[in-house]
Every structure is written in structure tokens, then in C-alpha cells.
Amino acid sequence: xxxxxxxxxxxxxxxxxxxxxxxxxxxxxxxxxxxxxxxxxxxxxxxxxxxxxxxxxxxxxxxxxxxxxxxxxxxxxxxxxxxxxxxxxxxxxxxxxxxxxxxxxxxxxxxxxxxxxxxxxxxxxxxxxxxxxxxxxxxxxxxxxxxxxxxxxxxxxxxxxxxxxxxxxxxxxxxxxxxxxxxxxxxxxxxxxxxxxxxxxxxxxxxxxxxxxxxxxx
Length: 218
Description:
- The protein is mainly alpha-helical.
- It has one domain (about 5-215).
- It has 7 helices and no strands.
């Protein structure tokens, strides 16, 4: 079996954690990376699942695989349940905001005036800057992960999850850039809704797959 190149794997892990921290940031990395809107932070829901998978792999390297085997099922169930609940909260929060913004925009003249005062302009340049950093970091993560061990490419679930993370990031960027400027806030909320649904489905998949591992402990 091909040996794991630990320096590359550790580097990939650090890069992924930095990406997640940026998505969760409200100024943690300075005003330049203060996240506008709901779309970018919602990506953290899917990224958290990928971080969990990579963390379990890391622990498998650092700790006894037998011990990780015993705790992986219950830890996956608990973590996936947390992400599932948070995804539902983000979904409904974004949906309420979307409906509110559309209602204001269509309620001419005073509602429309309120919409323009409250939700425009959306900081698309800052969002695009942050998203470009995130995409670069995620591509670097994928490269270093493959450099750590080419056998990761045989893990279809991991590859699909990484692809989903990249696709969600690109989707948010597209929805930010696609509409006229005054509609960017509405499309940002729509992006958060789509991403949170994807995260909900992934976390549900993690939750279901963890059940057989738990039953084996009893």
C-alpha cells in the first residue's frame, strides 16, 4: 500500500481549516475579509462536513485506528446531527430574508425605497475577493491531498464531497455576479438557501451512514 506522505496531508488539513475560518469570519482576518451576505458563510456548512472527514483521517494517523473505529460512529452521528439542525436554521432564516426582500422590492413605492436603503448596494467586489481566495485554497487543499496519497482518488465519497464544496463556492460566486447590482442581496439569500439544502442532504447522508457503525458497538 502506498505510504501516506504526512507533510502534504498536514498541509492539506491546515489549508482546509483556514478556508473554513474565512467562511465563518466576521472580521477575524481583518476588514478586507469581513464576509458580506449569507451565501459565503453558508458554504461553511458543507465545508464543516469535509473538515470532519479530514479530521477523522488525521486522528487515524495520530491515534490508534482501533480507538478511532470505536468513536467514529457516535462522533459522526452527533456532528452530522448538529450540521443538519444548523442547516435547517440557515435554510429558514435565508428563506425568511428572501421573502422579506422580495416583498419590499415589489411594494412600490415605499417598500421599494426601503429595500434600496437596506439591501443595496451589496458588496460584490468584497464577496468576489473572498470567494477567489476560498476557491484557491480549496484547489490547493485538493492538490496537497492527492500529493499526500494518490489512493484518496479511489475514495468516491470523499471526491464527491470535495467536488460539492468546490461547486457550492462557484455557485455562490455565480449568483453574486449574475444579477443587476440591486438584486445581488436577493440572489445571495437564494444562494444560502441552495447551499443549506445541499448541506442538509449531506448531513442526513452522514447521519444515516453512522447508524450501522453504532449498532455494531452494542
